[in-house]
Specification:
- This protein is mainly α and about 160 residues long.
- The chain has eight helices and no strands.
- The protein has a domain of about 110 residues: Helicase, Ruva Protein, domain 3 (Orthogonal Bundle).
- About 60% of the residues lie in helices and about 0% in strands.
- Helix 2 packs across helix 3, helix 4 crosses helix 6 and helix 7 packs antiparallel against helix 8.
- The protein starts with 15 loop residues before the first helix and ends with a helix.
- The model has no long low-confidence stretch (mean pLDDT about 90).
């Protein structure tokens, strides 16, 4: 089964044992663009005034997404990850100092899912990057009082260095 949850880090951190069980994590920040905020208000008003019309307006887009997901689910069992990318995943997890092996497994699974979503039968380095950006930041072991943040740029540099080895 899948659990989708949310939390406010200002209310306290989760224990490392729990954090490791969270597969992929997305950090959501408030929108700072005025136009986007205005669009949120417009869409919310549009929905409140005519929920059925709002649903119809986005029905084709939602249907296309549903079909794409359906095709990806059918394709997923056939998607492979080349040995070189498995090696890269292992090195990333070591270099990002993550504990255990869940991160390795989750990155590979998410990379395969991303490849399937894009209609491909083999994962690419870009799939691994996208998956790692979602699977690693919350797993990085930090020392007490250490504030080091996950760096997508550092991730890309590491992967580039692995590719030339």
């Amino acid at each position: 089964f899948i659990i989708i949850g949310s939390m406010n880090p200002e209310e306290g951190e989760l224990r490392p044992q729990l954090i490791d069980r969270i597969g992929l994590m997305v950090k959501v920040e408030g929108i700072k663009d005025v136009e986007q905020r205005m669009e949120i208000i417009r869409r919310q008003r549009e929905f409140i005034s005519d929920p059925e019309g709002f649903r119809r307006k986005y029905e084709a887009e939602q249907h296309a997404l549903r079909e794409r997901i359906k095709k990806a689910r059918e394709l997923l069992p056939s998607v492979i990850t080349p040995p070189k990318l498995l090696e890269i995943i292992g090195k990333l997890c070591i270099d990002f100092n993550v504990q255990g092996h869940r991160a390795d497994i989750i990155i590979e699974r998410a990379a395969r899912a991303h490849a399937a979503f894009n209609g491909r039968l083999e994962t690419t380095v870009d799939d691994v990057i996208i998956a790692a950006e979602l699977a690693l930041p919350h797993r990085m072991r930090r020392m007490p009082l250490e504030e080091e943040e996950f760096s997508a740029e550092m991730l890309r540099k590491l992967i580039r260095s692995y590719m030339v080895e």
